[in-house]
Amino acid sequence: MRTAIFPGSFDPFTLGHLDVLDSALELFDKVTIAVGYNHLKPGFFAPESRVRLIKDSIRPHLKRECCIEVISYSGLTVELCRKMDTRFIIRGLRTTTDFEMESVIAQANKKLFPEIVSVFIPASQEYSFISSTVVRDVIINGGDASPFLAQGIEIANYLPKKID
Ligand code: ADP
User: Fold this and answer.
1) 41 is catalytic
2) pLDDT at residue number 40
């Protein structure tokens, strides 16, 4: 069985990520979406909320849900690959800036784990402007983020709890 990991912050998971996942499922029998969590950079959504949002996003969209797994992890992505016994890392590319950053990361990963192959999937034109950063900005400023998110996602159900 051909397996791959699709790692990212997914803070939050957007229509752009979903589009990359769809293409990855054409290439691999099973794709593990791995939510990277760094204790020093906690991000906006809690890791467990990000995982829940991804599971809710893929449920109605993908007939092949059996072939998708969603996990969270911290530490090096190559270590996760080793642990999960896979060689393929999926990344999405929107711009030349993405390409430059991703090729550096891919080379570093290959140095750490020579069998690793990074698979770059270009963004579809209609989603190439979507980023989690923009989505967070919209949410923080009270806007409607639903055009950037999978159908049916009610962002209020995933937001960090306010501490008074
Ligand atoms: P990271 O913080 O690891 O870059 P992200 O959650 O921002 O994590 O993105 C995960 C992957 O998805 C990255 O490879 C990124 O380039 C890609 N990606 C993000 N948004 C889009 C999009 N709209 N279309 C295609 N790929 C995207």
Assistant:
1) yes
2) 81
Global pTM reads 0.94
What is the model's pLDDT at position 38?
85
Residue 132 Cα to ligand 1 middle (Å): 8
Q: Which residues line ligand 1 (CB under 6 A)?
A: 8-10, 14, 16-17, 20, 91-92, 94, 98, 123, 127-128, 130-132
Identify the weakest region by mean pLDDT among 65-69, 115-119, 124-128, 138-142.
65-69
Identify whether the C-beta of residue 34 lies closer than 8 Å to the C-beta of residue 77.
Answer: yes
CB 77 within 8 A of CB 109: yes
| pLDDT at 44 exceeding the cut of 90 | yes
Task: Give the single-character DSSP code of 159.
Answer: S
At 32 the three-state DSSP class reads strand
For residue 133, give the ligand 1 atom closest to its CA.
Answer: 7
**CB under 8 Å to 30, separation ≥6 — which residues?**
1, 2, 3, 4, 67, 68, 69
Cα 98 to averaged position of ligand 1 atoms, centre (Å) = 9
Rounded to 5°, the CA angle 87-89-91 comes to 165
> What spacing in Å lies between the alpha carbon of 90 and ligand 1's midpoint?
10
